[in-house]
Write a structure and sequence with these properties.
Layout lengths: L5 E2 L6 E2 L26 H9 L2 H18 L10 H7 L64 H18 L2 H9 L8 H12 L3 H14 L6 H13 L1 H7 L3 H14 L5 H9 L4 H15 L1 H5 L14 H18 L2 H11 L5 H15 L2 H16 L5 H21 L3 H15 L4 H5 L6 E4 L8 E4 L2
Antiparallel strand pairs: 1-2, 3-4
Helix pairs in contact: 4-5, 4-6, 6-7, 6-8, 10-12, 11-12, 14-15, 14-16, 15-17, 16-17, 16-18, 16-19, 17-19
Subcellular location: Cytoplasm
Pfam families: MA3 (PF02847)
InterPro entries: ARM-type_fold, Initiation_fac_eIF4g_MI, PDCD4
Amino acid sequence: MDFGVKLMNGSDKKEEAPILLNGDVDEDVVEVNGIDEGSKSPTDKTLADAFPSDRIKRKAKRLVKHLAKDTTNGSGPIVTAARHMKNSRKPRNGFGRGLPKKGGAGGKGTWGAYGSEMNSVAALDYKDPNYDSESLDNGDIHLEAIIPEMTDDEIQKNVESIILEYFEHGDAGEVIAALEEMNVGQKKHKTIVIAVEAAMDHKPSHREMTSVLISEFMEGVVTSEDVAKAFEILLGNLPDLILDAPDAATILGNFIARAVADDCISVGLVHSWKDMAPNEHAKAALTHAEVLLADKIAMLRLHNVWGVGGGGQPVRALSKRISMLLKEYLSSNDATEAGRCLRELEVPHFHHELVYEAIVMALESMQESVEDAICRLLKSLFNSCLVTPDQMMRGFVRVFEDLPDICIDLPPAYSLIDRFVTKAQRHGCITDEVVRQVPIRGRKRFVSEGDGGKVKEDIL
């Protein structure tokens, strides 16, 4: 199969000749391959002068290559070279411009698409030259969150807030969960020190909650060594604790005895501490703890060492304690001490019982001095907000409702209550609404015999 280029009118202008198939060759087409240079015609010489032979050879090779793709077994449709080159997507010069592919995803002499280096697979074999010993994909490096260990000030601030919240909700599990999120390191005993010191400034019910919390800590939060270390620190701090809580030695002794009852520490440890007491207050606390632990009956009652406070107490027991409180007040006339004792009962919803018992006690005494003392007590409790106006009103109303029964044992009860209410109003303990509810007793009298001896009731 031969190809050639036809020259027209001997000029330098060239025209592409039709491509012929089946071995036909045009006479005017100059043979390129296999022609002896000595047998060239003048036309051939002109062609050779116009187009160097190397250039013609290269172009002929390209035409042969393109034609081979469009023909089958030497036969096929006649396709012109211009049309074939027009539809070709390859560069016509045979080399290309060296530009990257669409999107910059490669190409000769290019870096590839942006970010393609992040998708490369790391070499997992340490013998691979590209192996990175610090790569996270090798499996020998694990990342974990590290919580820095807290300082003493941070522990004091965070644990104290957690303990104060515990006094409100009483959920020991929530306290344990909060402490597990904190990195206290080897300072777990400080949590017990902070809890006990906070309980000393609160009510007996809060101290009971603290003892329960220490017992719950033994389930995996702290060890017996941590509990022992905490009590050693507390014994050394007793001189400072007594400044804020005068009975701190007794309270700490109760905590130590309760810890022994809950199997947090051993009895022998308490005896060893007493021999090495750092101060006199610590020795008194340990002596108190030994007394509680020596008595077998007291040992059985250590679970109630703080007493039963709050609404868990029976009503009869509360009434008895309130009656004792009032008798102690009448003997001492110390309203401040009476208020402290009432606060320790931790029954603000039951303060109307104190008002009721105080009024009945004043009526039964039938003495104005006792009535004045009771009025002063009620005024002190009312001004200190220990007894709310609602509780005060409920106490008076209860007395008004029970006056018919009180009159059985105390006939002049109506006149006495009228006098007491007037004094209470003068002291500012009650409002005008309470005064308007004071009952008036009806007086029975016999009329003349003409009325048939019937009894009439007049409402005064």
